[in-house]
Write a structure and sequence with these properties.
- With about 325 residues, this protein is an alpha/beta fold.
- It folds into 2 domains: about 5-115 and about 300-330, Medium-chain alcohol dehydrogenases, catalytic domain (Quinone Oxidoreductase, Chain A, domain 1, Alpha-Beta Complex), CATH 3.90.180.10; about 130-270, Rossmann fold (3-Layer(aba) Sandwich), CATH 3.40.50.
- Helices cover about 30% and strands about 25% of the residues.
- The chain is built from 9 helices and 15 strands.
- The chain has helices at about 45-50, 120-145, 160-175, 185-195, 200-210, 230-235, 260-265, 280-290, 310-320, and strands at about 5-15, 15-25, 35-40, 70-75, 85-90, 105-110, 115, 155, 180, 200, 220-225, 240-245, 270, 300-305, 325-330.
- β9, α4 (about 185-195) and β10 (about 200) form a beta-alpha-beta unit.
- The longest helix is centred in the middle third of the chain and has 22 residues, at about 120-145.
- The protein is globular and about 65 Å long.
- It binds NADPH dihydro-nicotinamide-adenine-dinucleotide phosphate.
Length: about 325
């Protein structure tokens, strides 16, 4: 096939990483079992890292980022995945060292391909993307450990970011009270749209729990998306048998904690990985997100961008200035 397609290519020019929209051909993609025409991708913090030349995410450039993609199968060499089927790919190596969803086509192993849940449009699937899957896994981590809405407030950090805002939206949809920890003064998103019950600034939250091995019990559970002192603050301030999930390290990858929250309060710290979890586990969360866990505000918290708008947006996300979700629409 001679098909040409557009993609955002990141390459190193004189030691500087640049992002340019270019025409590629299918021969530029890796040889894999399933070729997909991508309709939407979504933009995550990890994409911003890949697009900035972060070798911890992407080892070889030129590279097309995009850890999420949804679209239709164009060619498949495996029986169970049919041509024209709507499918979803998130995580694994997509957009890291395998050409990702910021291109109009991707070529991936069959094991990465998930059928699009019937209750989802392609666009809705990307409203969630990896951020939503991670939010879903975090909420599920609380529920599976006995945190019901009656147990008390849930504190969520990185509240205006992708994982944070979607975690809040899902929790509110399920009837939980939510306290948002945020570095931004964004009452419109947090109060008007996401309807959080309280906002605590990042500085206040950090100062409140710093330098103490344990603090007053305040929250039933926490969903942390940033790491560092905010994560340790959550461990110190959740109730007896409280649960805290952690998935990200935008603030710090260090965790400074004593063992007191664990041995005196039975607190559980649950690590969340959305990348290498099994396809079955992913499908379970996708099915919940497309039905009982689907919040009403998805469209409201999401901005749609074009390939040409991506370079500026990726720079903004890298600086920690994400506001809600962003999806990329291919033509
Ligand atoms: P976003 O860029 O969408 O949001 C991150 C948010 O974190 C920002 O909007 C901001 O929210 C807050 N923030 C930014 N800088 C800092 C800082 N220096 N200190 C404290 N908070 C800060 O990212 P995502 O939601 O896509 O991802 C969040 C984290 O989760 C990332 O570290 C990402 O790598 C990780 N992740 C992990 C996954 C996994 O499988 N384990 C999957 C997906 C993401 P506010 O201003 O409201 O505080």
């Amino acid at each position: 096939m001679e098909t040409k397609f557009k993609a955002l290519v990141v390459k190193e020019v004189d030691g500087v990483f640049v992002k340019v929209v270019e025409n590629l051909t299918l021969a530029d993609l890796p040889a894999n079992e399933v070729l997909i025409k991508v309709s939407y991708s979504s933009i995550n913090y990890k994409d911003a890292l890949s697009a900035s030349g972060n070798k911890g995410v992407t080892k070889k450039y030129p590279h097309v980022p995009g850890i999420d993609a949804v679209g239709k199968v164009v060619l498949s060499s495996v029986e169970e995945i049919k041509t024209d089927a709507p499918v979803l790919v998130t995580g694994y190596d997509l957009g890291m060292n395998t050409s990702g969803g910021f291109g109009e086509y991707i070529s991936v192993p069959a094991a990465w391909v998930v059928p699009l849940p019937e209750a989802f449009t392609e666009q809705e699937a990307m409203y969630f993307g990896t951020a939503g899957l991670t939010a879903g896994l975090s909420v599920s981590g609380l529920i599976n450990n006995g945190i019901t809405p009656g147990k008390g407030e849930i504190v969520v950090s990185g509240a205006t970011g992708g994982v944070g805002s979607l975690s809040i939206a899902i929790l509110k949809h399920l009837g939980y009270k939510v306290v948002a920890v945020s570095g931004k003064n964004n009452a419109k998103l947090l109060e008007d749209t996401l309807k959080v019950d309280e906002i605590i600034t990042r500085e206040e939250f950090t100062a409140r729990y710093d330098n103490r091995p344990l603090s007053k019990s305040e929250f039933a559970a926490g969903i942390d998306t940033v790491g560092g002192k905010i994560l340790s603050g959550m461990l110190k301030s959740v109730n007896y048998n409280g649960v805290v999930t952690c998935c990200g390290m935008i603030a710090s990858s260090q965790l400074d904690t004593s063992i007191f929250p664990f041995i005196l309060r039975g607190v559980k710290l649950i690590g969340i990985d959305s990348v290498e979890i099994s396809k079955d586990a992913k499908m379970q969360i996708w099915n919940l997100l497309s039905t009982a866990w689907k919040p009403d505000q998805l469209k409201e918290i999401t901005q749609e961008v074009s390939l040409e708008e991506l370079p500026k947006l990726l720079d903004l996300i890298l600086l920690g200035n994400a506001k809600g979700r962003y999806i990329l629409k291919h033509n």
